[in-house]
Amino acid sequence: MLRPLDLTVWPRRQIYQHFRQNPCTFNVTVSVDVTAFKSSLKEAGLPFVPALIYCICAVVNRLPALRMGLIEGEQPGVWDSVLPLYTVFHPETETFSALWTKSFQSCATLRLKQPPTVVNQEKVRSGRTYGVLGPPDAVQHAM
């Protein structure tokens, strides 16, 4: 659920208002050495990509500033949690489909042979659909 912020007491209100009136974008790219992380995962028998997605999502969900959204395009709010969103490539059509994981509660789920619940996964795997996105309600709070 996206919970609205009380703008009368929100300490970042002025910054929010400034950037709503003066929109801009920025990007940050950094190099991260994941050698030790990959080695630890290999020793534990865990796959790299799901573990990386889990770690990123776990950190994002700890920080309210990274779970923000807009209600009706204007009112800032904070999601209770966000879901990981990632893509799969279909070589036969050279298109992508977006998948998101509904529950990724602990790193232990990475050990499962079946991944956590993934929206649209079975349809994508069976080739019955190649839509870019599945149900729109899940996309709103996906990262």
Q: In terms of topology, how is this protein built?
A:
Elements: E1 2-4, H1 13-21, H2 35-44, H3 48-62, E2 68-71, E3 75-79, E4 85-90, E5 95-100, H4 121-126, H5 136-139
Antiparallel strand pairs: 1-3, 2-3, 4-5
3D structure, described in words:
With 143 residues, the protein is an alpha+beta fold. The protein has one domain (2-20, 32-139): Chloramphenicol acetyltransferase-like domain (Chloramphenicol Acetyltransferase). Helix content is 31%, strand content 17%. The chain has 5 helices and 5 strands, in the order βαααββββαα. The strands form 2 sheets. It has a 3-stranded antiparallel sheet with strand order 1-3-2, with no helix packed on it. β4 and β5 (95-100) form a beta hairpin. Residues 111-120 have low confidence and may be disordered.
Task: Give a nutshell description of this structure.
Helices cover 31% and strands 17% of the residues.
Assembly of the depicted chains:
single chain
Helix content range of the residues, please?
Answer: 25-40%
Q: What is the string of helix and strand elements?
A: EHHHEEEEHH
The largest sheet has its strands arranged as 1-3-2
Globally, the shape reads extended
> How many domain regions?
1
Low-confidence runs of at least 5 consecutive residues:
111-120
So how many helices?
5
At the fourth level of CATH, the homologous superfamily is: Chloramphenicol acetyltransferase-like domain
Hey, roughly how much beta strand do the residues contain?
15-25%
The top level CATH class name: Alpha Beta
| Structural class by SSE content | alpha+beta
User: What's the total number of strands?
Assistant: 5
The CATH architecture can be given as: 2-Layer Sandwich
Distance between the termini: 14 Å
What is the rounded Rg? 18 Å
Mean pLDDT: 77
CATH fold field value: Chloramphenicol Acetyltransferase
The biggest beta sheet reads:
3 strands, antiparallel
